[in-house]
Amino acid sequence: MSTIERKRTYEWADPQQIAEMSKSMSGIELLGGIMDGSLPQPPFAATLDIHPLHLEKGIVRFELMPQEFHFNPIGSVHGGVITTVLDTVMGCALHSVLEQGFAYTTLELKINFIKAVTLKSGRLIGEGRVIHVGKTTALLEADLKNEAGLLYAHGTSTCMLLNLNTNKK
């Protein structure tokens, strides 16, 4: 078996920088700063090469162009990559409606894989939407589709809301 060497390099900013900045911003301000480039993207986004496309309160879209470094041993994009895209757009959709001093953590994440993602899938768009935000939890959903609208995966998530102002010691 012949092997062709492939290399990939990328850079990322100090993740603590954005974490500190986020404490003084609303969710939509933080995400807007990442989208317009005035704030660095989180390291995982650089690692997986996913990019924000659209931001409005309660709806977020990211893109993923399937590449070899996303592959599992059977020649398709690893389910963890797909899950990460859906988790990201759901979390960012929720973050877009949070005021300064609020955060969240995932309580439950469910992903349905509909169709294998390969290089032939082309550019994929993950869209996350807020379904409901209560006092302590939020319900979210997301789809991963190609540009023709073919569904590759669907997800739902329940998140717990955290008031950072009341958790100070």
Automatic annotation (TrEMBL):
Alphabetical list of InterPro entries matching this protein: ACOT13, HotDog_dom_sf, PAAI_dom, Thioestr_dom
Coiled-coil regions listed: none
UniProt keywords, alphabetically: Hydrolase
Keyword Hydrolase part of the UniProt annotation: yes
Thioesterase domain span: 75-151
Keyword Hydrolase appears in the UniProt entry: yes
Parts of the chain that traverse the membrane: none
GO MF terms held by the record: fatty acyl-CoA hydrolase activity
Record-linked SUPFAM superfamilies: Thioesterase/thiol ester dehydrase-isomerase
Matching Pfam families: 4HBT
Superkingdom to which the source organism belongs: Bacteria
PANTHER family: ACYL-COENZYME A THIOESTERASE 13 (PTHR21660:SF1), THIOESTERASE SUPERFAMILY MEMBER-RELATED (PTHR21660)
Family under the similarity heading: Belongs to the thioesterase PaaI family.
Name listed for the protein in its UniProt record: Thioesterase domain-containing protein
Source species of the chain: Chryseobacterium populi
